[in-house]
Structures are given as structure tokens and as C-alpha cells.
Amino acid sequence: xxxxxxxxxxxxxxxxxxxxxxxxxxxxxxxxxxxxxxxxxxxxxxxxxxxxxxxxxxxxxxxxxxxxxxxxxxxxxxxxxxxxxxxxxxxxxxxxxxxxxxxxxxxxxxxxxxxxxxxxxxxxxxxxxxxxxxxxxxxxxxxxxxxxxxxxxxxxxxxxxxxxxxxxxxxxxxxxxxxx
Length: 180
Known about the structure:
The protein is α/β, with parallel strands linked by helices. The chain has helices at about 35-40, 70-85, 100-110, 130-140, 150-155; strands at about 5-10, 25-30, 30, 45-50, 60, 90-95, 115, 120-125, 160-165. The protein contains 5 helices and 9 strands. The radius of gyration is 15 Å and the shape is globular. The model has no long low-confidence stretch (mean pLDDT about 90).
């Protein structure tokens, strides 16, 4: 089911340090990993963006407040963009998650705010959380760290539900993970 007020966001601004090259563009079954992530979200969302890099003609958002803060910088960018564009929630996925069960995405959307307990970057977040996340990350850039970059800690601070995956989720962190 497509939710017109749901923005899909691929979080793709990482350095790929464990992978050794740009893992978003690594091929799996003849397609870039980021294309698999896009395909997973598209049936559910009214529009898509990519956070942290350009990809496939989708709107690209720079991390907020600055690059290099990890996935929360991308989530903050997506939440701010979603609010400005009239969306209610943002459904996020990592660019390195090529296979996500539709039932898990349905559950996250229905339980929003919610995140996957086994892969917190996979979540459905309310745009109402945008200002709080921006403040949290702003504190990090000024030296107040206190777990500011942990998706789980932020999710707990907004009372998001941790939803267990129905089975193992594939996450590609190293080249050896591709054929596995």
C-alpha cells in the first residue's frame, strides 16, 4: 500500500570504510545496493529522497546539521525536508540493506514512530521529531555528545517502538557480505 504522506529516505552518506569502496554502488544481482534499497521503499511512499549523496535522479539532501555525523544526520535532513514538503512521516532505510520484508515495513509504518530493533536505521519517524533531532545533533557539534549519534538512544527519547525483524536482515558492510 502506498502512503502519499510518507517520504522515503535512503541513508547513503557513509564513508564505506569497512567496505573499502563505495558500497552504495556495489553490485548485487546486477544492481547497485542503493537501487535495491530504493526498490524496497518505493511501493510504500509518496516520494523518495537520498541523504548524503546523489543517486538516480532522486532529490539529494545534505546531512543536517553537517556531514559526518552518521545516519542521524541523514534522518534529520529527511525529517526537515518532509516537514517543508507537507509529509507526515519519513520511512528510512540504509543504502546497504538490499532485502527488507514488506511485512516489516508495513509494521514499522503502522507502529510509527518505530524502528527495526535489529537494524535501527530502518524506521518510520514522525516529522514532529525534526526539531528535537536537530537540537540533539546541534549539541553534538558544540561538544555535548551524550549518545547524540545513537539512533537507538534518539528513538528511545521519542518513545519509538522497537520492532523485531521477522528473520535475519541482510546488511552489507564488507565485500564478503555481498555473496553471502
